[in-house]
Structures are given as structure tokens and as C-alpha cells.
Amino acid sequence: MALSARSITLHDVARDAGVSAASVSRILTGRFRGEPAVAERVRAIARQLGYVPHGGARALITRRAGAMGVLLPDIFGEFFSELLRGADAAARAAGVQLLVAGAHSAPEELVAAIGAMRGRVDGYLVMAPHTAARAALAQLAAHTPTVVVGASDRAVPFPALVVDNRGGARAMAQHLLACRYDRIAFIGGPRGNADATARRSGFLQALRGSAAARTLIELPGDFNQQAGWDAARALLRAPRRPRALFAANDAMAIGALSALHDAGVRVPDEIAVAGFDDIPMARFLAPSLTTVHVPIAALGERAMQRLLDGVRHGTHATVFREVVPTSLVHRASTGAPADPVTMRGVA
Amino acid sequence: MALSARSITLHDVARDAGVSAASVSRILTGRFRGEPAVAERVRAIARQLGYVPHGGARALITRRAGAMGVLLPDIFGEFFSELLRGADAAARAAGVQLLVAGAHSAPEELVAAIGAMRGRVDGYLVMAPHTAARAALAQLAAHTPTVVVGASDRAVPFPALVVDNRGGARAMAQHLLACRYDRIAFIGGPRGNADATARRSGFLQALRGSAAARTLIELPGDFNQQAGWDAARALLRAPRRPRALFAANDAMAIGALSALHDAGVRVPDEIAVAGFDDIPMARFLAPSLTTVHVPIAALGERAMQRLLDGVRHGTHATVFREVVPTSLVHRASTGAPADPVTMRGVA
DNA sequence: CCCAGTGGTGCAAACGTTTGCACGCGTTGT
DNA sequence: ACAACGCGTGCAAACGTTTGCACCACTGGG
User: Fold this and answer.
1) Would B171 disulfide with which of A168, B90, B182, B328, CB 3.0-4.6 Å?
2) What CA–CA distance (Å, rounded) separates B230 from A211?
3) Which CATH code is given to the segment(s) B10-53?
């Protein structure tokens, strides 16, 4: 296996400048308190040689990797690219790099990925919506700065940023009730996904006691567009069509909109559709999608900031639980509420 | 600044097992040719202590970072998440990690990001659609394995995977002509973006000589949904509306669809809409979007594979230029061709 | 019984950087 | 003129691995 050609090191610069490597290091990192003339000469030679410090070696001696690990369940769709964008912005501002790994379905895969990052990152930003992975994470968090993003068990404590899934789903339920939709269908998320579970339970809770609760139709889903498409097709074949359809995320809502459009069903006149996440594309759909706004990029940014703080101040053992608020975004895919009073309650 | 608590090293395992660090290293990396009993004991102790090798230290001595740098112009929308997903898949299969950095508008930013990755990655996967960044890259590619993705100048040679933008745009032009759309509008991409330029020139080239060429309306865009929305609004205000609208990427086509829907304009009956990229969502739009299929995830995967090959076999100096084919995907947002013969020519 | 061969294991150097300590030289105070 | 002090700079250790080389203890043949 061929190795990359040996590149310019600190010693090369030191030799050419006629000083020690120590001085070069001090000069280039700004810790030098000697002759300005020497410093200038060294800087000039470094520039001329095209010297760039070796991040790995620096990380080893300073015990700071200068990078954060980002672990995602998947890299798919706008949600994750938004999250990553936010995390990247915060990391860049701090001069820290991002080691990204996706597609962790099983808990042991997640643990393996975390292991592979040891010594290359100072902390972990983990999105682990699957309940099963939580125990493994709690152990990790005690050793290394870690921030978990997304829903979390209260049972297993670690620093976490959680989206107010229940609140958002409740607001959506109230909105749909205010619109007087009597028959409502709910398309759920993947089994074992904590966000999906919280959204469902918030929705059901707010529906309790209403007429819609008794006629509620529940359909399985997996957060992908195809699942929403399939669910909508199934609903159209049902003996009594629902009047509204709430998907546990926007991707499924989009799939549903597509199926309804193809079947010639008018939205929201015949069936209203709502989603969850408010991905950037939601407002550009036809019709634009009523959904629950989650500040996705801000979530990634905030999580990274808290992670960086934890590493900087050594407060990473401090368990916190920050709830990120959600808000209802009323667009064209659902009708206007019949009762404005209820809407006030939502806002 | 607090440092992370000292974690288990090779020496800790060696001490507990009563062997040298060298033996532990050989045992855990499978290069050990001694007593099986010793090996088993060491493995047991390593497991019990929760030892995980320090990637940074290993990278330093082996001169292989075990990671690849991925440099993106931006992390926004489905295109980049698809590309990243493909790259991640290939990297994961090779046991290599991904150091991701986004948002490089200016060439010097790109160079800085590359520098910051020195010593942490074995190669670079760069998406640099802006012509200005190319010169800086050519220099880099000579030193370090680099694969550029997206359009490329033939003038500045380095290993590159390029999308057949011109071919795709030509096919789209032929399709729109076959549909007998007389007045066509084109929404362009960001100024200086090589992909956008190639798409435009392929489109214009195929239109040459047709009646549509004389009535062509060109509008500026920046690859974001809002630009497509704005462009469509502008077209609706124009004295004579176009009959078809070709956006240089899907995001802008989506924005346009949204604006047309809001204005009550039927697609494709009144205005046909087409995009470029075929992001996963394109088929779930209402109406589903006619577009030029780019195998985005496959592109990322293939680029990463070639990069890995280059690093492994030391062939990174070999300049290649692999053209990724595109294909027309005819969906509901454009009508059926009036002349099937022309369509045969497209396929 | 000794020597050569062999197989198991450890020593130490190396990767490229940072940093505590000390050294040498020039200056100043007595 | 000699001690003390300070300032600029270099030496060497350290970070956690891997790996060439050498060493030791066996074993077997002469």
C-alpha cells in the first residue's frame, strides 16, 4: 500500500530557518516571545515551503482532537442535511471539524462507530432515536462529552436536547379539531423510534374525549415518503375515507400528498394533510404543507454549541435536558379553523 | 480548558496482562504469532477494561489517517444529503471515516478547510462547482489523493467524476421540443457554477435552430427553491406567458411548481415544468416532476471508491475523467411528446 | 555436552507536534 | 570585576501507537 508522499514538517521549516523545531512551533502558534526578526523569517520560510501543521500529531500531544463526532441514524432527506448544516455552522465557528457517520440501525453498530472515533474526536453529537441504543449511550456519556439530540428517556440520563414532540403533536390535534375534521387518520413512525412514539402519544392525548378519538384510523409508517404514499392509498380504499390525515413527519406527508394528487383527491377540500418537522421544502409543496415547525438547523447548532461548551469547560458530566419548542405552522394543506378561540389556545 | 479524562491505553492493558505493549498491539491487530493462551488472556483483559485503540496515535505511526475529507459547497437540501449518503456507504464499507466540511463559497475558504484537514485525512473528495476554486485544487491534487465531483474544466486536469450535464440538458430540450412547447423559459443556476453553465449551454445548443430558441426567456437563479418561486412569479407577470419552464435543478423547479399552484395555474396543462437532478422527492411532488436523472448517491459512492482506490494503490496521481451518464425521467409535470420519433432519439 | 537454530516476546525508535526546563549570554547592580 | 538576573532559544520528553531488531530460552542434532 502506497503512502502519501512525505510532506513538509516542522523540522523541515526549522532546518531551513536555522532554528529549533520548538521555536518554529512557538512562533507559528503565537507563543513566541523572542526576536521579531527571527519570527518573521520563520514565518516566511514556512509560507514558502507551504507548511501546514499536522493535525493528528498536534491532537496527540495536546490531547485535543479538534473534531467532534456526529452520529446519525441515517443520512437521508432534508431533515439530516439541515441538522448537519446547523452542527457544521457551530463547529466551524469554533474551528472544530466534524467526523460524520450515518446509518446506525442497531445499537451495537452505534457503539462500534463511537469506538472507531476514539482518539479522533473530543466529543459526540448523537442522534439515537431508537430506544434500544440509550443504555449503551449512558455509559459513554459518563466518559466522554456527549450530547444526545432528539427525544430521550428520562430513565437514562445524559445531556440531551429534546424536541417538544408531544407539545407539537397536541397543537396539531387541536388545530385539526378546530377545523372540525371528524374522521382523522394518523400515520406513525418507525417502531421503537422515540420521536415517533412521543408524537403519537401527544396526538392521542389531545384527541382524548373528542369524537375524532373514536373514529381515529392508525396506519404504520417508517418516516419515508413511500410509506406516506402507501398509507394514503390504503386510506382511499377504506370504506369511509378520513377527512384529515396527520403524518408523523413531513416526508410521509409529502408521499401522502402525492398519492392523493394522483388519485384526483383535492387537498384540503376533500382530505386535509398535515406533517411534522417543517423541513424547508414544506412551504414549497403544492399545496403548501401545514406542519409542526421544528427548528432543525438551530437544533443541530445548539447541540453542537452545548457540546463544545461541555468540552471547553469540562462540564460534560453535567446532565441537562433542554427542550426545544415547536410551533404549529398553518399552511394551505389544511383548512381554516372553524373556531378561532381554539387557535388562540394553540399559539 | 479541561481535558477529557485519561482513558485506557495499550500500556494499561499490557500492565494488567503482564506483557509488553508491543505484544498487546500485535495481538489486537492480529499480527501475533505466539502462545494462543497469552493472546486469549490479553484479549479478555482488553475487553474487560474497555480498551479501544486511539485512532489518532495509530494514524500518526502508520501514516494512514483512516479518514477521508469531504468538502462541499454547502449542506443544503436533498442533493447533498444524497451525495453524502453515497460517500458514507463506500467509506463505511472500507472502514474509513468521513471528515465533512460545508459552506465554501470562496476559493480561499476551500483551501483553508483543506489545510485544516491535513494529517487527519488520507484524501479529499471535493465538490467545487465554482470555477474559481479549480486552480487551487490542481495544486493540491498533485500532492494528495483528490477526487473532484461535479463538472470540471478540461483546462485544469485532476481526477474527476463529472455529471453529463450537457447531455441531460440536451435530452430535456429535445423532450420539450417534442412536446411542441413553443415558448420555453429557462431558470439558470448560480453565476460561475460549472454545473449550471454546462446545463444551460447544453440546453441552448439543442434548442438552436428551433422556433423556441428565438422566443426563449432566460431568468437568473441560485439553485434554491425561493429562486424558482420568484422566477415563476416573474413569468406570470410577463406579457406572454411561456408554455414550458425548465429549471437548472429540482429545487428551483419545486419553487416554481409552488408559485404556479398558488396562482392557480395548472401544470402541465397551462405551463409544463421540468427540473434537473431527480432528487428522491421529485417523484413525490404534485404533479410528479419531469427531470433529468442524476444518480446522486451512486455518484458520491463511486467518487469515494475511486478515491479509496487511489489511496490504496498509490495511483492518485493518475488523472482520470469519468462521465456519469444522465437520463430523462418523464413524469407528470410535462405533457406527452407529440412526436414519438423524437422521443426515441432521446432515449 | 555444546552449539545452532527457532519461536516467543520485549526494547526502543519512530510518527510530528507541544512544552517544561535549563542553558548560555548579555546586562546591570554593588 | 564579580554575582545576579533576565531574556532568548534549544534539548528532550511526552502523547499512544506500530514495528524492526534483538534477546532469551528452549529444543534437537552432532
Assistant:
1) B328
2) 43
3) 1.10.260.40
